What we know:
The protein is an alpha+beta fold. The chain has 4 domains: 252 residues, Rossmann fold; 170 residues, no CATH class; 92 residues, Phosphorylase Kinase, domain 1; 167 residues, Transferase(Phosphotransferase), domain 1 (Orthogonal Bundle). The protein has 21 helices and 27 strands. An 8-stranded mixed sheet has the order 2-1-3-4-15-14-12-9, sandwiched between helices. A 5-stranded antiparallel sheet has the order 18-19-20-22-21, covered by helices on one side. It is rod-shaped and about 130 Å long.
Amino acid sequence: MKIRSNFQNNKLKFFFLFSLLFLPILLVPNVIAASDGSQVLFDETRPYYGKYYTIYNIGNLGSSSFATLLQDNGFAVSVLTDMPITPEKLKGYDVLIVMAPGGNYTDEEINSIKEFVNNGGGLFLVGSNWGNDDGDENFSYNKIAKSFGVTFANNEIVTDNKNFIYYSYFAKITDVRPDPITMNVPEFYYIMGTYIKNPGTSNVLAYTSGDSWGDQGYVTSEGYTESNYQKDPNEKSGPLPVLSVMEHGKGKIVFMGSVMTYDNSWIYRSNGWKLELNSVNWLTGRPIPSNYKTAGVISLTLADLEYRILGMALFTLILGAGLIFKIRRDRKIKESRTIKTIKNWKFNTLIVVNAFFAILGALLFIPINFYLLDSLQPTAYDPFFAYTLIIIGLLFLIFSGFILYNIIARQRMIAKYSYFNIAVILFFAFLTVVLGGVFTFLYMQLFTIGSLVLLVPFLINLWFIRSYGPDLIIEGKEFDRLKKLSVKSLPYELHADYTNPVFIGDGGFGRVFKATRKDGKEVAIKIPKSFDKRAEKTFVSEVSNWSKLDHPNIVNLYDFKILPIPYIEMEFCEGYVGHLKYPLKEAVSIVHDVAKGLQYAHGKNIIHGDVKTSNIMIHNGVYKISDWGLSKLTTGESVTLSGATPQYAAPEQISSEFGKADERTDIYQLGTVFYEMVTGNLPFKGEISQIYHSILQTQAKFPSEINPDARPVDDIIMKCLKKDKDERYSSMTELLKELEKYKPVDETTLFDDD
């Protein structure tokens, strides 16, 4: 018994491959890289919005620009996400960085942090304009600062209307005191940060200018606009301390506000990140090798993001299963779809729509990565989201490219490529929804809406396939495809229905291929070399006659189509009768078999009209007449045939003086075949005009004049070749009776002279 668990004919394998296509996006943030540098721990137990204060990325997994800078310089960076902060969780780390201003810290957590510093740890505490001044010190980490005797001016911001850079809320800091922390940092810019209200015993290293001031929150209820910040004479004026350091027990502490570093054409690059890097280096007390770099990914804990990853994995599996189901279902119903021609303007519109949305997708997924991968852009820096966009964008563009290539070059619509892109977009849209609680809402919403808009062309593509079929046949150009066909390749339009195609040869009408049908049967495919609208009706009418014929000596016609490409599917035969001289015994047997097939067709009022040696096939030792493409259905009156092969044409097929073609035309042509088989020559040779003249005017030599062994059948052949139809055999039945006289009774019987 055949085991079906082998991926169900590779369908499950496809499913798993599809799932793995997206898993790197989910798993990349979880890669853990070791480092020999100092161990730095970011406190994210109080997550807050934006990207100034936390290590951020997909579901809070990943890195900030500051964290990346640390890691690139040899620090091993980790994230603490689960409360509370305890000595056990801080064990093994050299520096604790607290950047998130929103949240409450308990006395136990404050004691854990103090114990960490007393035992030699470093604390990097970055202040901001949040929390109540002195009324509620449990809000924010001012409570941490106060435990070391330092106070931030909560709910006040530093602004500057003179020494600012572009915006007044970027205060320029130039009063920087020499210290290992501020080494080679002449100035930096300070963004809406709070100042140190009471530095206590800490050593102040940087002050704002005298033209800056500390203002109380938002001036108006309308929220922030640049004009809202008017200097209040009752507020504290500069210079204001913004950076200080302290040694405590065996450890060290840095107190400072938010430092912003930009690298745009309108903002001068400050050395703020270098200042922060020096701060952490000073806290660890370890020198950083000048050439030390690591490209590892920050080690993380999943914490509250497990459900997000689980949800994405489940959605990916559902999406993959739905994709497989849809592709399989389409394969089953494909044969029932109607093929129609399409207007040229609709075809061009389809190209424009797909090209436009491909460009739109490239603009959505690619350019933003210049900012997402720039660690000097803190408000945008997000490498893992950038990698996600790059992967999604590349997949989108690859499948869009396949679609455009097939439409333009092959005039085909392959549904699976549209399905793939729909799956890619839905995956990305769902991912942005999942991340909506992590990133700024508007930030993710733009990507969600933008990605869903990209579904438009693929839904249009599927509608076109449903309406016009997978092959885009432009009206008026239905058969132009034949001119572009490769001589020895089966057209791609037939690849879905046939496998293992092999080129057999070609003739005057078309090219022939051997192929395997979906049910495993070997068949022959014949494709015309040229075709036009005028030939369409004739082809359908004539080939449909062939489908009515069912006889052992007639090649079976299984199927035929006009669109998307004209072809016929017929019984595969191993060979055909060539232009050779055959022994008399074998020649009589072949002609007898063909005559029986023609007799059957004549009984159905169908004549062949192009009987020749190349149309006589052999299959399993039985000779069969093939290629009924020129046959006509008789209706009581004889009909005129055209297009017969000149060397085998009957007089009535050349000149109307001999009447119209009927069953006796096939008798004449079969006589020509008989003549050729026993002599090795055709009755008439030369140029076409000479052949036509001879057929109409000249009596052919007796076969025995060329081959004496043919003398027993001289009279049969010459009667078949009479110019006047009335002098030939009246029917194929009469010819068969004559042939029976010379057909041997058994293998040992020899022809005699009687």
